[in-house]
Amino acid sequence: MSSSTQAAPQALTTPFVPPQSCADQFITTTIYSDFTTTTVLASVPAHPRFSACQPPGWDSGGDNNSILHFSPAVCPSGWTAHALGGYESQAVSTAHCCSSGFALIDYYPFQSVDGISPQSPCVANMTNTSPPSATAFPARSTAAYHLRVHNAWHISWEASDMPSLSPTPPPLPLCETSSVIWSWVPGATVEPGAYLRTSCDDRASGSGSGSGLPSLGVLMVLVVVVPVVFLMILCSCVWVCCRRRRRREREAREAHENGGGPLVRVLGFVEGASEPLEDRSPGEVVAK
Predict the structure, then answer these.
(1) Is residue 58 a contact partner of residue 44, using CB atoms and an 8 Å limit?
(2) Where are the domains of the chain?
(3) CA 28 to CA 43: how far, in whole Å?
């Protein structure tokens, strides 16, 4: 039975190996979203064999948002780590672990599945050997779409814990809530292109998922600063044009009040003239 009091996360410094009998511990349930019925096989604590297939301390959090949190820890054997990142304020790195063939995905209708945390569950297609995309969900339809879903393990560690962890996780810059590596198979070499960020200020230029997206600072410049600068330039042009027009009107009035001579030079024509008089002197103008 799950504990109702929150305790410190259990440490798992080596990969947990679930018993082979735990490979199929899903119960059938249904979720409803946008008039669509979806059949789901869910691995939830309500399953009679769930507790026996978990390491000690799996329920130390006491609720769906905190269960399966281990620290310092590594992913179970054969699983994949997703969304590796860190929190600078806490000097802690974090990751989510999904079973083989599952992908970490954020799709809120899963919060209607009792026992599944809405915070990024692990999902796999029953009719497809490849997991769904981490950024795109299968198209909705009126037909049932069969899925398997389980809670992701939430693991964390500090820099001082890394020597005791096997396999050792890759070094990560601590950039608060930003993921640094989207997916990593424990023990595998991390290629430079897999880093979404090489520092907390810049994004890596590699081919990893999301590496081509502009940073928040660049988006702010494009969305806010550029339109403001354009508007300021436009307003300046309008102000200059209006100022010149008022100056010309003022000079025309002054010329008219002074006898009309300068008026010819300012306006270039007089009433009744058939052509502009730019080249004529005031004495050449014949009054009508």
Answers:
(1) no
(2) 10-213, 228-284
(3) 9
